[in-house]
Design goal:
This protein has helices at about 1-25, 30-40, 55-75, 90-110, 115-125, 135-140, 145-180, 185-215, 225, 230-245, 250-265, 265-295, 305-315, 315-325, 330-340, 345-355, 365-400. The chain is mostly helical. InterPro entries: Cation/H_exchanger_TM (IPR006153), Na+/solute_symporter_sf (IPR038770).
């Protein structure tokens, strides 16, 4: 069965890589296709794909994927863009993101009155970060205005790193409430995770930078092996921080930010392999998500869950973004466009997997809602990206004419 699973995965990966241009120029993208392949080929349907992965295995796969994605996104982030284009990314991160979390909590309080308020805040945080990979048809489409593309790209690259400490804080407060431990102990736990994670990320990035400079001066670098430098650094940041009791995600995010700043122009060459490695792990994650995770929670998708998922992709996201962009020169449709293309993806999956073994009283409802929202996001954002981008291009062409 192991080789059968490998053969099915490899065959689909091969075929999709050959015909990707045909699919992605239409209404499909990689995450959507691999998730649908997992659903169709997995145990819930045809059954030729039978991955035997327990919760710990899914968690490890998702965590490693997010660690490398966090590192790569942070390293790639052009922080100067934060101050350009009417501070669009800053508005999305500092105004839109907090309002999205608050809106998600309020809607959850309305739809799930039986769920404790802290757990509703955890659900809202899980579904706040956006996924650049799901919105690639938008952020890489030259038909979309450059400020919009850059704003969405920087937002998705940084908001998952911002949500990690918030999620850790809420989980720490939840432990304090459930065990009646002093609040001080919960806050100390959070500060340790954040502090250790940040220190590990900073320390390893500085060490790697100095070693790279030393190797470069002596002409010891080889192009083939240099491609593994940043993937190795990303995994080292994550694993060492986790081992020392810190947050590996904070370490990967901080290490990526500092590495991108220190390496400057050299970072783009070094990041190629890291991005390709992250893409491969993401493909496997989406396949497993479709084959195992979605079928496991399908029976828990109640009408309230579906309604929250729809609202999460629309009102909960779009209204805060619209408010955050007030006072800019962007027209109403562009603001709605930016609000709509906040797809939920890998970060939300990892955050959901992180709480699978936690002591949430309403774990089933929280997980089902998060998974349903990601599923709906992959479908709706995947099929709407190219048509709406084409409409934006046609509007721009009409104005020029």
């Amino acid at each position: 069965m192991l080789y059968q699973n490998l053969a099915v995965l490899a065959a689909f990966l091969l075929l999709y890589s050959i015909f990707a241009g045909r699919f992605e120029s239409r209404l499909f993208n990689g995450p959507l296709m691999f998730m649908l392949a997992g659903l169709l080929l997995g145990p819930a349907a045809i059954g030729v794909l039978q991955p035997h992965i327990n919760t710990q295995g899914i968690r490890l796969l998702a965590e490693l994927t997010l660690a490398i994605v966090l590192f790569s996104d942070a390293a790639n982030a052009n922080l100067r863009v934060l101050r350009q284009h009417e501070s669009l990314p800053m508005r999305l991160l500092l105004v839109g993101l907090p309002l999205t979390v608050v809106a998600g909590w309020l809607v959850g309080y309305w739809l799930f009155p039986q769920v404790p308020v802290l757990e509703l805040a955890i659900l809202a945080t899980i579904l706040a970060p956006t996924d650049a990979a799901l919105g690639k048809a938008v952020v890489s489409n030259p038909a979309v205005p450059a400020p919009v593309r850059e704003g969405l790209n920087v937002e998705s690259g940084l908001n998952d790193g911002i949500c990690v400490p918030l999620l850790l804080l809420l989980l720490g407060l939840l432990v304090e409430v459930q065990t009646h431990e002093p609040l001080q102990l919960a806050l100390e736990l959070i500060s340790e995770e954040l502090g250790i994670g940040a220190l590990v990320g900073i320390g390893l990035a500085l060490i790697a930078w100095q070693l790279l400079r030393f190797s470069h001066r002596h002409h010891w670098q080889m192009p083939m092996w240099s491609q593994l430098t940043l993937p190795g650094l990303a995994l080292l940041c994550f694993a060492l921080a986790q081992r020392l009791g810190g947050s590996g995600f904070i370490a990967a995010f901080v290490g990526g930010l500092l590495s991108g700043y220190l390496l400057n122009r050299q970072k783009h060459t070094l990041l190629l392999a890291s991005e390709e490695f992250a893409s491969l792990l993401s493909v496997i994650t989406w396949l497993v998500f479709g084959a195992l995770v979605v079928p496991a929670y399908w029976s828990s998708f109640t009408p309230q869950v579906w309604l929250y998922a729809v609202l999460s992709l629309t009102l909960i996201r779009m209204l805060p973004v619209f408010i955050s962009l007030l006072g800019t020169s962007l027209d109403s449709e562009t603001r709605l466009f930016i609000g709509w293309f906040g797809p939920r993806g890998l970060a939300s999956i990892v955050f959901a997997v992180m709480i699978m073994d936690s002591n949430l009283q309403a774990a089933s409802s929280v997980l089902a809602t998060a998974i349903c929202t990601v599923l709906l996001s992959v479908l709706l954002h995947g099929i709407s990206a190219n048509p709406w981008a084409a409409r934006m291009a046609a509007r721009r062409a009409g104005r020029r004419a």
